[in-house]
Amino acid sequence: MRRGMTTVMDSIKECVGKALEKVSIVDVHTHLFNSSFGELLLWGIDELLTYHYLVAEVMRYTDISYDRFWSMSKKEQAEFVWDELFVKRVPISEAARGVVSVLSAFGLDLSSKSLDTYRDYFSRYSVDEYVDTVLEMAHIDYLVMTNDPFDEKERVVWDGSYVEDRRFRPALRLDQLLNGWLNNWFTLKSWGYNVGEVIDSDTLKEIKRFLRDWIKRMSPVYMAVSLPPSFELSYKDPASIIIQEAVLPVAEEFNLPFAMMVGVKKLSNPMLRLAGDSVGKANIGVIEYLCRSYPHNKFFVLMLSKENQHELIVMARKFRNLHIFGCWWFLNNPSIVREITSERLDMLGFSFTFQHSDARVLDQLIYKWRHSKDVILPLLIERYSAIIRSGWHLSEVEIEKGVNALFGGEFQSFLDRRF
Ligand code: RAT
Ligand code: ZN
Fold it and tell me: Virtual CA dihedral for 93, 98, 100, 102, nearest 10 degrees?
């Protein structure tokens, strides 16, 4: 009997491991672009080394002035980071370990620590070859980009050279529209939308027209915004008005989820530029109010603060129109992913999306997904083993189904549902 049980447990481990190796991933939030966006698609070793997570880390070890760092070319910045974090020190932080995992996945010689050799290796690929290689290595079915129509560099592509690639799906990002209304309404006006600074009913009508136009143009998977910890629903705040009076009605019309990514303190240290954003605990009452008041809308929600996670999970149990999609940004570290995912599995079963990569550099798909899989493997084994010990029967197919749900299946069915 004991031996029989040991064999069953071994085969559970094997089945979960296999299911994780073969799962075809839907990466629901990234900052990647398909190759028709030209240089907006970042890839290769220099981009990996200048990832803003690593810029924040390297600054902790040096007294180089911020201006001096930013005046360096990308190649020089990459050399600086390599030297400080990988040559003078051991790369144990999550972001630094990520670079090691990528180099190792390509079979490069890690003992040489020769940045130029690694550069040579990556330069042999064409962009398209590299995209194919990385997506295959990371087992990505498709990923979701982040597309803000107010981003000038991106707009040019949408206006001209954009070519659809089913592996890269758009998400209509509304940060500049919602968080920058006072600076950006005039831009909207210059594009032919008859809006004014004061958000009255005519302006709202035109904002809706703008949203519909871009939805038709992009076919986004969802609309999205990132919001500060201080975000509240108030008739004095442009973001709050536009969300309730324009975004949510249009989202409902197209049955598109609205992704709210809450808790980012923009430019806490402006000298670090993109690396200077920080985190704060937000008021989850806002999410609760929206889920309850707009039951025909679908909400994808991330909260950046660890302190918000427990209440967010409880909220998801209360509202089926709320879908949580991974551990965001400062939460995407093994120690925290382990804790949060354990709680989500315990309280939500399979009804959430385990992770997104947030990759900004294509190559990061390889390490972010590898590391996330390493974290979830023992969590699933533990839970399956527990029910088997109680006498539950479990097939390999059921294990695969569960893994598929967590890596994109549940997201897909949330997209398809209409409440
Ligand atoms: O994780 C990141 O790279 C952040 O800078 C943000 O992009 C964040 O994920 C966001 O989407 O706002
Ligand atoms: Zn992001």
Answer: 180
